[in-house]
Amino acid sequence: MPLNLVGKSVHRVDAVAKVTGAAKFVADITVDRMLHAKVLRAGVPHALINSIDVSRAEAMPGVHKVVTGRGCTILFGTCLWDQPPLAVDRVRHAGEAVAVVLARTESQAEAAVKEIKVDYTPLPYVLDPVEALSASAPILHEKNGEYRRVQYVVLSEKNNNVFHHYKLRKGDAAAAFAGCDVVLEDDFEYPLMSHAALEPHGAICRFEADRSIEIWASNQAPFVLRDVLSDMFGVPNTKIRVHIPYLGGGFGGKSDISIEPMVAYAASFVPGYAVKLVLTRKEVFTSSLVGRGMKGHMKLGATKEGKLVALEARLCFSDGAYGDTGWPVVTVSGHNCTGPYEIPNCHVDALGIYTNTPPVGAYRGYGHPEGQFMCSRLMDRLARTLKIPLAELMRRNFLSEGKANGLGQVIKKSNGDLYACLEAVEKSLGSKPAEDDTYLYGRGLAAMMKSPKMAANASSCAYLQVSGDGSVFINLAGIEMGQGCHTVFTQMAAEALKVPMDKVRIYSDVDTQFTPWEWQTVASMQTYRGGRAITQACERAIELLKSNAAVVLECTPDDVEYDGQHCFLKSVPDKRLTVGSLARGYMYQNGLTVGVPVQATGSYRVQGVTEPDPETGMGNAAGSWTFGVQAADVRIEKATGKVEILHFSSAFDPGRVVNPQLCRGQITGGVVQGIGHALHEKIQFDDKGVIRGANFGPYHIPTVKDIPEKQTVTFVETPNPEGPFSAKPIAEHPIVVVPGVLLNALFDATGVEFTHVPVTPKDILEALKGRR
Amino acid sequence: MATITLTVNRVKHTVALEHDKVKLSDVLRDQLELTGVKVGCGVGKCGSCTVILNGKAVTSCNLPATRADGAEVQTIEGLSDGFALHPVQEAFIETGAIQCGFCTPGLVMRTVALLNQTPAPTAQQVKDALEGHLCRCTGYEAILEAVRVSQEKLSRV
Lengths: 772, 157
Fold this sequence. Notes:
CATH topology of the largest domain in chain B: Ubiquitin-like (UB roll)
Largest sheet of chain A: 8 strands, mixed
CATH class of the largest domain in chain A: Alpha Beta
CATH architecture of the largest domain in chain B: Roll
Number of strands of chain A: 31
Number of domains of chain A: 3
CATH superfamily of the largest domain in chain A: Aldehyde oxidase/xanthine dehydrogenase, molybdopterin binding domain
CATH class of the largest domain in chain B: Alpha Beta
Largest sheet of chain B: 5 strands, mixed
Distance between the termini of chain B: 45 Å
Oligomer: heterodimer
Number of helices of chain B: 5
Helix content of chain B: 25-40%
Strand content of chain B: 5-15%
CATH superfamily of the largest domain in chain B: Beta-grasp domain
Number of domains of chain B: 2
Structural class of chain A: alpha+beta
Radius of gyration of chain A: 27 Å
Structural class of chain B: alpha+beta
CATH topology of the largest domain in chain A: Aldehyde Oxidoreductase, domain 4
Radius of gyration of chain B: 15 Å
Strand content of chain A: 25-35%
Strand order of the largest sheet of chain B: 2-1-5-3-4
Shape of chain A: globular
Order of helices and strands of chain B: EEHEEEHHHH
Strand order of the largest sheet of chain A: 3-5-1-12-9-10-11-20
């Protein structure tokens, strides 16, 4: 059936609100009886708290309360409960919250924070994940391995800093390496980075006298937040109301629970008052969540014909002071570090390690960029070693129908077509210029895959109601954070209902008091999973309209046809009733009403997903895949080492592109974010273990002057019966292998094997010196 | 307590400042409820808080409010008449230059100021003007296109 709206670049449904300044973000919200919070941060990476003196601060003008962690016995988490809302007797990273001042104005709170005196006994600290494994490293949590945790998925060790050790044991890697013609290996580093969503994290929380809790938060996971607060304070889920306004970017940095437990804990001391905290940019760097932080080693073995045989990898993550947000990233980084290739023998250890840094959480790509950075660099080297063109080597090993991935799952045709992606990228490239006096030129190529990491019961739920004028509203908890899910939802609902888009309204204020349950907006799953929930609700609503019509037309529902405006008798199309007239049941002239009000629900859960087996790390843990191939042409200015990207070409297979303009925006934005990782971004620490340069400027995210001269974006659309209108996840994907592409291009230009990001002009000048 | 008088979106206001470090963005957001002015960094490095002050685009998060005493200020809220959008706003929508929308008001105001001053900017002038604006979502491609389309629309007005 031809599609009218799905596949069209319709304008965003939230565009007018955003372009007029009307769209509300959490910082824009004011509620009555609202106090402002400011937080005293530790300032030291690891120390015992001997005493905190808040007496002067509490006497300052406007101050209602100064809250510390003294006596707090709460540990919060979702699968690993290791973090207090405020430091209790010890700080484990320099950005950790030690005390919260609640005052009438923000500047009063800020002034009072300066009056708090804390006495510390410094402890040795460790920032590097490999150092944190050594016997002499300070132990951050003596209770590691004893904390409450979901034991099947969080595999903690004891008496060390390893709070999660994921193992993939597929085939027999050791034996397989012995039979390989070529074995290559190297060390790699992908340091800590900031998501740098433009909107800083914020929350407003109020405890009522009856112990119910209301919170407004910049969070991608309202129901997870609700459940965490419920667990923290022993309040039923139903007495907690979470509101989520527009999010000014998330990229995973707002998917995990970060500042909300602290704000709620502080608010619990001033019942009746709302407590508002919006982080400063500095705090976003030091005291929310950060991403990546991997040091790794990978070994790849192949036959001389270029068939991959074995992979061994060890990924060590400096996951920061607390582990609940890091462990699942570690798991995925491990089982998907194979990239989009079939490798029969895999031996992977991925370790989540406590370090004295901010906790690591989800970040766009979710473990895939770290692992596939290593694999894409080694593939490039393998191609050169075997003297097989890289594209050909990739083709000989791509995952495709009937082949098994690292988890042992067998790929279906509908999972996507890497060969077509590669062909599209190859076609888009022109000829590569030769070195000239000013520039070196290089070309890089890499392929990626990503599967969502999710709770095995992760679902989306939608509620739909048809109104008396035939317009429709839909309520679901897909969070709009820029990716365009509300627009895509509207397109899909209007398509399914055969109505114009302006007849469909997606509720934009997610409110757990009214909105049906949803796992969370992560893993690029809203188009796919939310879309299935919506289309099911639409189908059910149409069925109800037909059965209402059947009563009036005195036939069976099967005799009724629906065209978006009317329900009519198939055999006598002139016998028709408008959708509006059927929406609340059908009312005859005398008021007698038959049928039912038309309201429907829909839900979708990716079927059959399990957690990986704790021993082998294998199993049906990935519910879908998206494949892609990317390439870049770069030039390096010899005098300065500056890298310019002349052309960046991407091809992805998202099943069906629901909105080409939005989808292209995901790719162009993801590529530029990846360029930041490859060439610019790294969270740096001073010699006292404190993050330095914690703001834009010192931490350089790409500006308009750092972007490729040209981006080519191609979509391969392999039919996917499982997806709504054939769609598959696409959002995180364009970032995954950008560092691999660019570092492969840098090798091509310079002959230098860079194995760390970011590669700065200084690194390049150093390397070129060695080259001459 | 010091007071300042300023004209914002054609309306004159006198506001009291809580202390001498109050920034223009605080006055606009907290006292005049113009929350379309976004604060992303607090140090004038991301451009989200950009407003037009006496005809020039400025970052309001690091501008002492006292410096706006007597000034004429335009924010995103003053750009359209409430229903009919400004051509630059239309261009941002049509070109897909908006994702999360947090950087959008600042970029729109910068574009308006740029095209008021330089109706036909070169590609380099556009990049120079936008360099101080960070966007983490779009990769800037659509934003550059929005500026181009804005220029076309304004040249037809």
